[in-house]
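User: I would dearly like some help making sense of a protein record. I have put the entry right below:
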Amino acid sequence: MRQFISITAKVINALAALEKTTDVQTMSEAEVRNNLDKRFNLNYVEKVTKEDITVTQSGNYLKVEIAYDVIENIWGNLNVLVEFDDVIEVGTP
């Protein structure tokens, strides 16, 4: 259970840091993805893939959603699936 908390905390911290970045709403989708990728690499976030990240931009509005699943083995053939969905919105739509 501790691992799930660690993973989601790292993703939430990366999103919070991105949200505080100067002029984040004017960044391109590639810049947003690159920024998150660097933060994930620094914090050893391996459960989030580029397909899990959705970037929506419209004028001065930016929405970044990260929806990912973590499957961990509990014991023997018993696994647990936890779904996460973290979002930030910056600017006005």
Q: What stands out?
A: The mean pLDDT is 90. The chain is about 35% helix and 40% strand. The two ends are 37 Å apart (CA to CA).
